[in-house]
Amino acid sequence: MSYIVVGFDFSSGSAIAVDMAIDIANKWHNDIRLVYVKERNEDEAPIRAEIERRNAGVAHLLKGIKLEYTIRQGKVSEELTAQADEDNATLIVVGTHGMSGLTNRWIGRNTYRTIAESKVPVLTLREDFNFNKALERIVVPLDSTDDTRQKVPTAMHFAKKFGSEIHIFGLYTSSSPDIRQVVNNYVRQTERLLDNAEIPHHTEMHTVQKNLTTETLEYADSINADMIVIMTEQENSLSNLLLGSFAHQMIELSKIPVLTVRPAQLTLASGGHF
Which domain-ending residue is among 71, 97, 125? Predict the structure, then answer.
């Protein structure tokens, strides 16, 4: 059985990451591996005792899956991704206000490095994420880059397991008719793929006026979305470049979970392809 790896450090952010991982793992029939990365001279005994106490408290939520843990030493991002490789993990989950001591508006280096280094998708969520709402609507931004559609099978996997609707957000970042036609083609291909998989979907085309991240988040907020699926790289505009990468900004600013997929990283079976 494959694993979902969770970065854990006793913070409220990492605790909510465990809750999310349990919800996902129950639907995917994956086991869960918590990874605590300790300091060189940190005593393992109290760490193990506290993790085992907390795991016992959520054992009743597990539906035929295992919740295990590992204590490693080293750099957080390297140890998380190494454990994911060893476990043939399908997903890494991290809380954006855990694992790296975040302050508002700034993503911690550990979280961002984990996303950059991971071979599997990484799901980030804030410590104030509301679990009282189902995963009903997933936003999938599509632009004119070659890799943009690679996020679609991963989004489909979530949609199938959670019964979600996918909202395609076609982004025109240029007035060039040729560039716009590329976006149109990608959107139509995605619509056909979702139709074939019988996944409900809606499409919104949008001309970017200021900033990719801001306008994507505004759209997600307008439809009361529950997740945004992005690539580690996305088209850049001048205003975007001044603030950093699309992925960096999205994870830093989003109030809802963000699932980040690396190019050529189609690790979740979806039953469809382009």
Answer: 125
